[in-house]
Amino acid sequence: MKTWRLSQKLTVILTLVYAAVFIGMLIARPGSKQFYYAFFNSSWSVWALSFGYLLIGYSFLTRLWWEHPMLEKLVAQRTEQLTALHNLTKAVSTTMRPDEVLTAAVTHTKGALRADAMIVWLVEQSYDTGRAAKKVSVKLHDGFDAKPDMLAFLGDQPMREAMDAISLITSPQSDRCSTGWCLRAPLRWQQTVIGMIGVVRWDAEFSVTESQLLESIGLEVGTALENARLYSAAVEAADVDSVTGLLNHRAIHQRLDRALEQAKKQSRSLSIIMMDMDNFKLFNDTYGHPIGDQVLKQVGKALSEVCRPEAILGRYGGDEFIVVLPDTGPDQALGIAQEIREKTDLSGFARANEDRVVPVTLSFGIASFPSDSVNRHELLMIADRNLYAAKDCDERIAATTEAQRVSRKLRGEGSFAVLDALVTAVDNEDRYTRRHSADVTEYALWIADGLGLSEETMRQIRIGGLLHDVGKIGVPDEILRKPGRLTPEEREIVQRHSWIGGLIVSAVGGMEGLVDAVRTHHERWDGEGYPNQLRGEEIPLVGRIISVADAFSAMTSDRPYRGCLSWQAALDEVLANRGTQFDPSIVDLFVRLTHERRASISDEADEAAQPFAA
User: Fold this and answer.
1) Residue 120 belongs to what H/E stretch?
2) 127 vs 264: which has the higher pLDDT
3) What's the pTM?
4) Could you tell me if 221 and 105 are in contact, meaning their C-beta atoms sit under 8 angstroms apart?
5) In CATH, what number does 96-239 get?
6) Where are the domains of the chain?
7) Strands 362-369 and 397-398: what pairing?
8) Is the distance from CB of 115 to CB of 109 less than 8 angstroms?
9) CA 184 → CA 96, 245, 494, distances in Å?
């Protein structure tokens, strides 16, 4: 470096001397051609020019040799920066999610400018005061783990419309205080500043070239970020129901798909609650659709208040709602359904300037993964089926019973499928049959479990409970659906169903062991039952068990000719017939188990609802 500077100085000095001599001689002998000839052809002039040219050449070569590594380094650095800018542009342009745009911007900018830390500020609209106001907050940062005070300091810095640099005292407590810098560039979209991006070095400044690069990054990121925001807003508008603000039918299916896949991967449970507003058409017809929309909004608000943020809420149809609950089992879902029911029952709906409150009630159907199904369509179908079953019960909430799950599994067996098809045929004429059979199976299994029966006997009770009324296929439809009390002749025809059912089951291969459960469930402990008037322990155990379960289910279910009894009233009736119609030991066990189970279900539902309470 010194040699190059010395040769440069000598060249300048020699040139000046040469020019001074020439000018002096020119002044002494102006206009003489011999002067020019003598001057340029003299030996000392030739040597002086030659030496000057050599010095100039040497100076040039020396400078080229010295600056070559620096030029290479500069070119490499610029190439690296342009490559990083290209990669950043590519990264932020290939995603339409704002959070991914910011993450890509921070990652690539930090590498391109060799920064120690990164920070991004964004402008947000605030309407807390009733009018729009710009609020600036730190949206993303990286590299501040060891310097939280610096993050807080930079977070309080105001927005700027142009590039700026903030000096940072990075070691105020040390003997040798060091200064860092935060270089900031505005994020622009159509001449509007929507935020700023900052790069931080703890002990070095940024060059002019780096400042220009960051400014270019601000333009790229600002455009990509606002495009992603607009796209997200458009997608959200397409996914959201305009009345309730919840997800619409299409979006809920998409979210359910993703939630179900996640549950499968993580081996976690998931539950669905489908809800239907009771008599909503009558409400609309009475008060008008604008009032109906207000009621829908109120229900949507109730769902949002009861369910936690991870729940997926949607309006499934005109008056139907759905809640998808990740990491939630059937008992928890039951508790949440009870919470929603209580909230909507208590609130009701009142029009402005009116004291009268119109009740708003919902019915609930619950289905759970994996206990009910692992398929989205089946889960929705089961939840919908339980929803309509709930409309026929006092609690207005129905979940899948164990008997129903067993029934679905057994339908894969050929023999059971044949008999189940007959039960379905009966249910098509008498809607009471299918639900009644499921309840009978549930109650009978309580008793069997309390008695500690073998697994084979439990299986007979499971299937026998579901098929115990299969003989009704031989009872005329008009008798099954008769709304009033039966005549003696009609009652005799109905009583034949247990005998017909026994014949049907005995004729199906592999089902011979179920004959006792189907044929004897109407025999009485005192011998006054049918079809064979068996008495006491002459009646097979499975028949005595299903007899109690059948009577209790019948009394707690609505029929066309009478309303249902409460659980306690039905239990009182069972106790009243202890030792006459029913086996006394089974009655005592069933009454005790019913009280225990009902209390346990209520307690579990209350506890399950707590984690999801708003």
Assistant:
1) strand 117-126
2) 264
3) 0.48
4) yes
5) 3.30.450.40
6) 2-85, 96-239, 240-400, 401-614
7) parallel
8) yes
9) 24, 38, 87
